[in-house]
């Protein structure tokens, strides 16, 4: 398995996201080709993929931003293809993101995960992420 940061958009990437994003959540919109190009070219968002036998089997977004209280790093949209779950792909993606963030001088990473994603939550805790007591709020802008 190979994990790397996407630098260019190839047809296999578009097809992989069409397959993977619905596995993350049924109500997520699959990114368009333009969306993926914008993400890949973003200064703040890093899109990592796990590939095996020339097929993308997982992805993770690592987002950096700077606000008045400091530099922040967030892991978002971790998804591993259902055909290879439980084989360490998610773990390797997270470790890759952690190493990358450390190399660019970030000292902490945040992430959120739905409680029903039991295996993912156990993995995050095993990798040293601590559960925080906080509230997450969302509103839809119409």
UniProtKB/TrEMBL annotation:
<dbReference type="Pfam" id="PF00583">
    <property type="entry name" value="Acetyltransf_1"/>
</dbReference>
<dbReference type="InterPro" id="IPR000182">
    <property type="entry name" value="GNAT_dom"/>
</dbReference>
<keyword id="KW-0808">Transferase</keyword>
<protein>
    <submittedName>
        <fullName>GNAT family N-acetyltransferase</fullName>
    </submittedName>
</protein>
<dbReference type="InterPro" id="IPR050769">
    <property type="entry name" value="NAT_camello-type"/>
</dbReference>
<feature type="domain" description="N-acetyltransferase">
    <location>
        <begin position="4"/>
        <end position="142"/>
    </location>
</feature>
<dbReference type="InterPro" id="IPR016181">
    <property type="entry name" value="Acyl_CoA_acyltransferase"/>
</dbReference>
């Amino acid at each position: 398995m190979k994990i790397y940061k996407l630098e260019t958009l190839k047809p296999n990437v578009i097809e992989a996201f069409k397959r993977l994003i619905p596995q993350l959540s049924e109500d997520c919109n699959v990114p368009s080709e333009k969306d993926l190009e914008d993400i890949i070219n973003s200064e703040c968002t890093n899109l990592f993929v796990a590939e095996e036998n020339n097929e993308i089997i997982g992805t993770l977004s690592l987002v950096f931003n700077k606000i008045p209280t400091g530099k922040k790093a967030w892991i978002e949209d971790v998804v591993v293809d259902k055909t290879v779950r439980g084989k360490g792909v998610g773990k390797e993606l997270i470790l890759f993101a952690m190493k990358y963030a450390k190399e660019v001088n970030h000292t902490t990473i945040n992430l959120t995960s739905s409680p029903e994603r039991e295996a993912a939550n156990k993995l995050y805790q095993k990798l040293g992420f601590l559960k925080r007591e906080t509230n997450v709020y969302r509103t839809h802008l119409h």
